[in-house]
């Protein structure tokens, strides 16, 4: 039987690559899309050439705790199981802290960090009962090292790492692993929207002197999801071209 992976933010740059990789490896994907964005999600589904057996589009506002609890409980009943959760949904609202609005703070914390609670909690107990599962959280190099103009984003991404280590203890006995993939700067719309001069100056500090490809991030997610990753838990796997070495 196909393993089932739920991926949030699945039609973004990294989310698309993770979806494509896991489909290629024989997984069924539950691809969540933001409330009201069905047309956009369908366009992505068609562009990627997925079938309905491979990918199910699933409307979910990851910032809404009640909706996640309700809809994910239903999803579990319908699908029977969720083997892998990839918390990948994320946004940026960059700006220097002195000028940061409360909205820019809370939007990022809600979408990037509170979503991890909202999405993982309704699925984690079932994984433990079944005796296996994978929680994979997509953090960032900037959650590890901090970044000028990203107090909100760095806080959320660092929070994901603490969450993951704590959850790893709770899942370990049941064979449920929890890990982080921490990408560096990756060739996605999120990074490409940065000012050219800012991105150029960051690129020049990356030892490999280039951005990651989304596919390079997806390979690490697949590794942690696969049987090869069964004994790895509470770990943060950096994929950053040497930008920051722990
Ligand atoms: N360190 C120290 N000082 C810095 C600095 C840095 N890295 N960057 C800028 N400054 C200084 C500037 O020199 C400037 O100083 P003066 O006022 O004395 O001239 C001051 O800080 C203001 O800088 P900006 O002109 O850049 O301010 P701004 O308001 O126009 O822009 C910003 C602020 C949008 C946050 C911009 O600095 C920026 O884009 N920073 C990079 C943020 C970033 O890396 N985002 C990543 C997005 S992608 C992502 O997040 C994915 C992932 O996981 C990696």
Automatic annotation (TrEMBL):
InterPro entries: Acetoacetyl-CoA_reductase, KR_dom, NAD(P)-bd_dom_sf, Sc_DH/Rdtase_CS, SDR, SDR_fam. Its EC number is 1.1.1.36. SUPFAM superfamilies: NAD(P)-binding Rossmann-fold domains. One of its GO terms (biological process) is monocarboxylic acid metabolic process. Residues 3-188 form the Ketoreductase domain. GO terms for cellular component: cytoplasm. One of its GO terms (molecular function) is acetoacetyl-CoA reductase activity. This is Acetoacetyl-CoA reductase. It comes from Vibrio astriarenae. The gene is phbB.
């Amino acid at each position: 039987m196909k393993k089932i992976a739920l991926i949030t933010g699945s039609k973004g740059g990294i989310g698309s690559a993770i979806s494509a990789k896991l489909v290629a490896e024989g997984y069924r994907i539950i691809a969540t899309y933001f409330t009201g964005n069905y047309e956009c999600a369908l366009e992505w589904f068609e562009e990627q050439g997925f079938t309905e057996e491979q990918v199910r589009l699933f409307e979910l506002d990851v910032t809404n705790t009640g909706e996640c609890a309700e809809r994910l409980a239903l999803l579990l009943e319908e699908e029977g199981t969720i083997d892998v959760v990839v918390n990948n949904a994320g946004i940026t609202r960059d700006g220097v802290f002195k000028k940061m609005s409360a909205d820019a703070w809370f939007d990022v914390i809600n979408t990037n960090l509170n979503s991890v609670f909202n999405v993982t909690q309704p699925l984690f107990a079932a994984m433990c009962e079944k005796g296996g599962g994978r929680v994979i959280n997509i953090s960032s190099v900037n959650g590890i090292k901090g970044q000028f103009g990203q107090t909100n984003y760095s806080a959320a991404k660092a929070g994901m790492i603490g969450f993951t280590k704590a959850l790893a203890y709770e899942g370990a006995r049941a064979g449920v692993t929890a890990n982080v993939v921490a990408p560096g700067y990756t060739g996605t719309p999120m990074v490409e929207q940065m000012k050219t001069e800012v991105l150029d100056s960051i690129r020049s500090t990356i030892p490999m002197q280039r951005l990651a490809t989304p596919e390079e991030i997806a390979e690490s997610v697949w590794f942690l999801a696969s049987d090869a990753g069964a004994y790895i838990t509470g770990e943060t796997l950096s994929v950053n071209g040497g930008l920051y070495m722990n």
